[in-house]
Amino acid sequence: MTDIDKTAHDTGAESGARSATESGAGSPAEFGAGSTTESGAGSTADTAARSDREGLDARLVVDRGRFRLDVSLTAAPGDVIALLGPNGAGKTTALRALAGLTPLTEGHLRLDGAELDRTPPELRPVGVVFQDYLLFPHLTALDNVAFGPRCHGAGKAEARAQAAGWLKRMDLAEHADAKPRRLSGGQAQRVALARALATRPRLLLLDEPLAALDARTRLDVRAQLRRHLADFEAVAVLVTHDPLDAMVLADRLVVIEDGHVVQEGTPADIARHPRTDYIAHLVGLNLYKGEAGGHTVRLDAGPEITTTEDLTGPVFVTFPPAAVTLYRDRPTGASARNLWQCEVAGLETHGDQIRVALTGTLPLTADLTTASAAELGLHTGAPIWATVKATQTHAYPA
Ligand SMILES: Nc1ncnc2c1ncn2[C@@H]1O[C@H](COP(=O)(O)OP(=O)(O)OP(=O)(O)O)[C@@H](O)[C@H]1O
């Protein structure tokens, strides 16, 4: 369970759900009890200054002990943003701040022009889907989904009719009467998504929505989630560790490291032009920084790399592990360019390949077939020569 989930429990979200369902009163923060204008709750959002800007405009500054999150996020309606980053980078903190579960130390949070920073979580037009979906165990799938519209003030019959519509859209109509324990992980996750969408949120937050699913289910749910996110007309922010989820689901990736945005862009751009070691590792590339003078890049780490691009000044250079060819002895026929003496630091299976970590003149990762690894007699500590063709490298300004 993530921090954000725990808080939902700690704040008595479930008991809030029961009373809301039974009495039509109250609503837990994480289900996004919906629009303040609709509820007429007299919240800050009603009185706050509005601008014409649609979508999300946020600068989230949160101090948590020695950790400081300082992240700016903007998104237009219809955008799906993935927050990606290593453990402890601040993704959950950012999501909690967007949901209103963690107060901002500084900054601002505007949604469709309305200031939300001081709007209580339960009055924000925000829906959250958790990693382990937190459905109310005592309610049927239908009533779980109906809970959202009920919190918006819909009557019981109307809320159930809306919920039935959402379940149908999610291909879950036949499970409407099932309690969560009778649902598979994938079905439960889709009910959770339906429940969040049924509130018609202006901001949908998804906290590792596929992480609790097995590989096969994950594939199906990812495809369905992609379809639903494509239809979603407001802003969606997704937190994930999984680059594949991020690449498949999001229009834009925002990579956070140590509380700060280190890179953002389309999945294709980030995959092609990583700017940090974390991102390079994520997208499976070797990455180096150096100074270009024509086709030669002198790396900060020491050696040179010959590239096809003709650049000047600070650059990044990448090449994929599959572009590396290894030799036990110094190759005599090969050009001296991009030839480095290395030592095997580690071996692991990587799909149907062997991934070799090399140290030496240039630390790098190489992929080769099991047969090649056996022929080369690779083992930790073995000396080895590595080459990469210039045409397999890619250089771009740093
Ligand atoms: N309640 C808290 N009090 C103080 N510091 C905290 C608290 N919760 C988290 N932190 C710190 O805030 C930083 C960011 O944590 P956060 O959970 O947002 O990262 P994350 O990117 O979501 O990580 P993960 O991927 O592991 O979930 C971490 O350094 C963490 O130690």
From TrEMBL:
It comes from the Bacteria. Keywords: ATP-binding, Cell membrane, Ion transport, Iron, Iron transport, Membrane, Molybdenum, Nucleotide-binding, Transport. It holds the Pfam family TOBE. InterPro entries: AAA+_ATPase (IPR003593), ABC_SmlMolc_Importer (IPR050093), ABC_transporter-like_ATP-bd (IPR003439), ABC_transporter-like_CS (IPR017871), ABC_transpr_FbpC (IPR015853), Mo/tungstate-bd_C_term_dom (IPR008995), Mop_domain (IPR004606), P-loop_NTPase (IPR027417). Residues 1-51 are annotated as: Disordered. Residues 333-397 form the Mop domain. GO terms for molecular function: ATP binding. Residues 1-12 have a biased composition (Basic and acidic residues). The keyword Cytoplasm does not apply. Residues 53-283 form the ABC transporter domain. Residues 32-48 have a biased composition (Low complexity). Transmembrane segments: none annotated. This is ABC transporter ATP-binding protein.
